[in-house]
Structures are given as C-alpha cells and as structure tokens.
Amino acid sequence: MTNSRRSFLKSATTLVAGASLLHTLPLRAIAPSDKIRVGAIGINGMGWADLTALLKNPEVECVALCDVDKNVLDKRIGELAQKGIKVKGYSDYRKLLEDKSIDALVIGTPDHWHCLQMTDAVSAGKDVYVEKPAGNSIIECNTMVAARDKYNRVVQVGQWQRSQQHFKDALDFVHSGQLGQVRLVKAWAYMGWMKSIPVQPDGTPPAGVDYKTWLGPAATRPFNPNRFHFNFRWYWDYAGGLMTDWGVHLLDYALMGMKSGAPKSIMAAGGKFAYPDDAAETPDTLTTVYEFDNYNIQWEQATGIDGGPYNRTHGIAFIGNNGTLVVDRGGWEVIPEKGKMEAVARKPSVDNGLDLHAKNFIEVIKSRKIDDLHCPIAAGAHVATIAQMGNIAYRTGKKVYWDANKKQFTENDANKLLAAAYHNGYNIPKIG
After folding, report:
1. What is the distance between the alpha carbons of residues 417 and 392, in angstroms, rounded to a whole number?
2. Which end of the chain is more exposed for a tag (fewer CB within 10 A), N or C?
3. What is the pLDDT of residues 254-307, one digit of tens each?
4. 11 pLDDT more than 60
C-alpha cells in the first residue's frame, strides 16, 4: 500500500472521474441470469461469514479477496480453490477497486477502516455489504450516508437480525399497542464467554502481516497481539467495545420498536469492574440511559457473566403498562401484568438471519430498489450513532445533551469525540 490515502486518490482520479459519469445515468438492473461478481476485503471473521452467505446464492461469483494478513489471505484462497473457485488475491484494497468487473464488495475489516473503504468503494462504482457498526464515529456515520447518496449505490449494513422473521413479528406486536404505554425499553448483552484479556508485551507483527496498513488511520503504536484480529474490539483506537459490537444489534430493535429518532440526553456509568487490570480499554460493565419524550431506553452490558435480565444473555424488553415483550435471537414472548392481558408463549426463531440478509442484498443489487434493503446505510448509521452517543457519555463522565438541529452535543467535551482522530496521512473523506 502507498503511504497515504492522498496518493491513491491522485492515481485514481481517472477511474473515479469516469465512474462519476455513470452515476448520472440510471443504474443498470442486473438480469437474474447474470452473474454478480463479488470481492471481499477483510476475510478473517465476519467478512468470511458474509461472503460465505452470499455464495449460497447461485448468481454470485467470488472473484477477488483482500487481506493485509497474508496467512489469512492464502488460507481463504485455498478454501475457495477446494470448491473450484479461483480468485485473485490482494493486500491493498485499492488495487482491488481498480477492477471494473467487480460489482459488489464485502467489507469485513476492523471498525476503524469501514468509512474509508466504503466511501472509496461506492466512489469506484461498487455496491457494498459493510459489517456493523457502520462507522467508528458519528462523523464517519454521517459521511458514509452522504457517500451512498452521492454515488447512488446499494449499501447494506451487516445487522442481519433485521432479516429474521421473529424479530419482525415481535415489533408488529409492539406496534399493535397491546402492551399499553411503553415507558421503558431495556437492551442488554451479558457475555459469559468473554474472559479477561491478559496483558502481553509489545512485539513484532507475525510474518506476512502488513501491520502499517492494518493500522491505517489509527494511531501508530507498537504491535501488540491483544490489539490484533478479534480483540481489536476492546480498544478505542479501532472500535467501541460491546456497545458498538452487540449494542448496534440490540439497540437497533429498541429504536425500531419505539420508532425513535435521536435522544434528548444520554448518561452512562460503568468501568472495568470485572477485570480492572487486564489489557482491554473499553468497559466490561456499563449502564447507559437514553432519554426520549415519555420513555427511556436503557442499555446494559457485562462480560464474564451470563445472568442477564429475564434469564437471557442478551435481548430487548419492551416494558408496557399491560405487559412486557421480551425478544432475543432465539424467539419472543409476552409476560403479562396480572389481569391486564394474555400471555404469549415463546415463539421461536425458525430462519437463518445472515443467509436472508445476504439474499436481500443480492436481490436489491438486481432490482436497484434501495427501499427494499433490510438495513440500508442510513439505518445502520443511525443505530451506530446512538451507540457512539452512549460511549461518548461514558468517556466524558457526564450527562450529555443532543441538539438535533445542530446535530451535535451542547457540551464541548462531548463534541470533541464526534469525529475519530485520523493519523498517518489519512483524512476523513469529504463528500461534496
């Protein structure tokens, strides 16, 4: 990879200028018989799962993979080869974007790369399936929505719960009014499988890893295995902890259930209560309260224990005057207030949300009916913004207030965290 984003943009001027002409024309609907050529960037974890789900659709053809870890790249190329699928391999995603035959991309890189890669991809004329959370800051979320709108591409965020039928059925029940007035919604993630991350010394990157590129716009630091691959989630440089990892899934349904916009205020309290001396930066215990008109949404997270509300490790509870609806990935039920309504026995999930989410993305690529997306970038950006608000309240140690007209906080300390700091010659994209 070249030293800075600027050098790439200069070299790609001709490509983007040519692509921009296409955006002034009606988007081509891909015939059902046509192959949709797909590439994937970041293929170690969810990026690989997303690509695997896409390949279950017969019209999808994988033609390119990209990863800064050559060990992962070679492994995945080999796995596809065993299935008779031959692909090109890249360490620089920008080289992959130069392939005009690629229709769509999966972005499964760490959170701090999502905004840059998505905006570059849509400006190069690609449709995008980007992992959640959409952006790693509120400004990044706004930028990603603006880029989609400017380049008129299909952008699906990987919040696959939106494609599960039982979640939709649960929301239909909430919206029916049978619960009565809902004054409080709880969303939570109690992750018993998450143990302490032992402190490890800094060292050298594994052979085959382009660590400078992995860092990208994040601050330059010595390589540490705790900050690499899966555990990057627990460091502010790259992500936002459980709030942005699980919170965007669960708060998403809390917001949809209440048809919520932005909260009036946010307060958060927590810390590293379970593992105070381990290597993680983000809190292992956190309670966040979002204030709306006539109701609150409350977020809870805890690592190392499974004893969440209603005996569930995760879920959303809509607490109404007549009863409480509890929904998680396994199903939903209604627990009545005595004498006010009938119970609804647990209705289990019966489908595969990830597969359905991938299928929805492919269907919209073919139809170009953006409104049919189950999680368009605007929706993914909205819940990622709400999650970021919670983290900002925690990091400032204050109750913060949101000015919906100005799209910023009323507190200077909070506004300093609206944008992620970019380093190493990278800049937050400017979408004109």
Report:
1. 7
2. C
3. 999 999 999 999 999 999 999 999 999 999 999 999 999 999 999 999 999 999
4. no
* Residue 54, token pair as written in the block: 């896409």
Find where tokens 């997270």 sit.
Answer: 301
d(CA 266, CA 288): 7
Q: Which residues contact 228 (CB under 8 A, 6 or more apart)?
A: 205, 209, 214
Name residue 267's beta-bridge partners. Answer: 289
Long-range CB pairs of 11-19 (<8 Å, 24+ gap) are: 12/94, 12/97, 12/98, 12/124, 15/97, 15/98, 15/100, 15/124, 16/123, 16/124, 19/123, 19/124, 19/125
């998680």: which residue's tokens? 328
165-349+385-415 falls under which CATH superfamily?
A: Dihydrodipicolinate Reductase; domain 2 (3.30.360.10)
**Options 3.40.50.720, 3.40.50.10860, 3.40.630.30, 1.25.40.10; CATH of 5-162+355-377:** 3.40.50.720
Residues 416 and 148: their CA atoms lie apart, in Å, by 25
Phi, psi dihedrals of residue 384, rounded to the nearest 5°: -65, -35
Pick from 232, 243, 234, 252: nearest CA to 159: 252
Rg of the chain in Å (alpha carbons):
22
Q: Tens digits of per-residue pLDDT, 210-242?
A: 999 999 999 999 999 999 999 999 999 999 999
